[in-house]
Design goal:
The relative contact order is 0.13. Helix 3 packs antiparallel against helix 4 and helix 3 packs parallel to helix 5 (93-109). This protein has a single domain (51-345), classed as 4-Layer Sandwich (Metallo-beta-lactamase, Chain A), CATH 3.60.15. A hairpin with a 2-residue loop joins strand 1 (118-124) and strand 2 (127-131). The strands form 3 sheets. Strands 8-7-6-3-2-1-16 form a 7-stranded mixed beta sheet. It has helices at 2-17, 22-34, 41-62, 71-84, 93-109, 154-163, 179-187, 265-268, 290-297, 320-327; strands at 118-124, 127-131, 136-139, 145-146, 149-150, 166-169, 192-194, 206-207, 214-219, 225-235, 238-246, 252-255, 280-284, 302-305, 334-336, 341-345. The protein starts with a helix and ends with a strand. The chain has 10 helices and 16 strands. The protein is of the alpha/beta class and 346 residues long. 35% of the residues lie in helices and 22% in strands. The protein is globular. The structure holds zinc ion (ZN) (2 copies). The site of one zinc ion (ZN) has 5 residues, from loops.
Length: 346
């Protein structure tokens, strides 16, 4: 009897479906898609990450970097924090798609000339490109290989290198130095300046390190000259050159690398006296005594870096929300940039 009832219901179901209009069937299919994650929590979370990162990508495009802390940018960057501080999303399809979208935008924008001022691009972590009308300066560019993963492809980084005239390397850590990228520059006849302990055997590198502040003029292949001021910084015990680079337009940007050292605060307090007025200071978001370092260099604007370094465990990946908490105490104008963004410095 039970079997007969089931047979009748099932047959009835098939009969019924053949008379349901196609629009209703389409509606049902859509509903089925929405609930297709039941019992598939991992798939659901990946889909959610994909939806969120696409939205972050779009929100950053529609709300480009400005000084201060606008709510829309904070929301976008904090959502990004939430995803990259959950390691299950590391190097997944949603993550890789986001990274590719951001680097493609930088590559596309670098095709255009900068007519006025200095455009500062933040690719990732402390990978920075600063471009004026006459020169394009790179700092700490890496593909960022972490075990078997790589944030940027060789091809994409080559496209960035093709647009640059020179690279400065602040200190000997793998999130700042990539031998493959160094070779890309050197092969193209573009100078690379680095601390004395970086890739020592590569004699083409302009190795620089002193206990004092030094200054030199660096001539580029295009005939343009840069004034380079080098400060003897440290990340704890490790030597860390802070480069202040002045372009032919008399615009100066300093890159602080991973500056973090108590003793250096003595000379940092007066660093502004050794360098032309800084148009921008790029600084690691976890530097020692942020407000004192900024006061010492006295830039027109501060740009933070090193948020969400993927090679770190999540406690030291450093979130954008932490950066905003620190920077909201600072009186100097500041700009917090996501990956693959740029800001026009005056
Ligand atoms: Zn670092
Ligand atoms: Zn470091």
């Amino acid at each position: 009897m039970k079997r007969l009832f089931c047979t009748l219901v099932c047959v009835g179901g098939i009969t019924l479906s053949t008379v349901v209009p196609s629009t209703v069937q389409a509606q049902e299919k859509k509903t089925a898609e929405k609930t297709a994650y039941w019992g598939k929590s991992d798939l659901y979370l990946q889909k959610q990450a994909s939806v969120m990162l696409n939205l972050v990508d779009q929100a950053l495009d529609e709300n480009p970097p400005v000084a201060g802390a606008p709510m829309t940018r904070k929301l976008a960057l904090y959502n990004f924090d939430a995803i990259v501080h959950e390691t299950k999303y590391d190097y997944t399809e949603p993550f890789n798609t986001f990274v590719k979208s951001r680097i493609d935008k930088v590559i596309a924008d670098l095709q255009k000339p900068v007519k006025k001022g200095m455009r500062v691009y933040k690719l990732y972590n402390e990978c920075v490109v600063a471009r004026t009308k006459s020169v394009t300066i790179a700092f700490d560019i890496v593909r960022r290989k972490i075990k078997t993963n790589q944030i940027f492809s060789d091809e994409d980084i080559q496209k960035i290198v093709d647009q640059c005239d020179v690279m400065f390397l602040t200190h000997n850590h793998p999130d700042h130095v990539d031998p493959v990228v160094v070779d890309m520059f050197l092969k193209a006849g573009k100078p690379v300046m680095a601390t004395a302990n970086i890739l020592k055997k590569k004699t083409d590198i302009l190795h620089r390190r002193s206990d004092k502040v030094t200054k030199e003029t660096l001539k580029l292949a295009n005939g343009k000259e840069l004034l380079v001021t080098i400060f003897p910084g440290h990340q704890s015990e490790l030597i860390n050159n802070i480069y202040a680079v002045t372009t032919p337009e008399k615009l100066t940007i300093a890159h602080a690398g991973d500056q973090y050292n108590k003793e250096d605060m003595e000379w940092i307090a007066n660093a502004k006296n050794d360098v032309p007025k800084l148009n921008a200071l790029f600084i690691n978001c976890w530097t020692h005594r942020m407000s004192d370092v900024i006061a010492g260099f006295n830039p027109k604007v501060v740009i933070t870096g090193h948020e969400n370094e993927m090679g770190h465990t999540i406690d030291h990946r450093e979130a954008f929300w932490l950066t905003f908490q620190k920077m909201e105490q600072i009186t100097t104008p500041y700009v917090v940039m996501g990956w693959g963004e740029w800001y026009n410095v005056k």
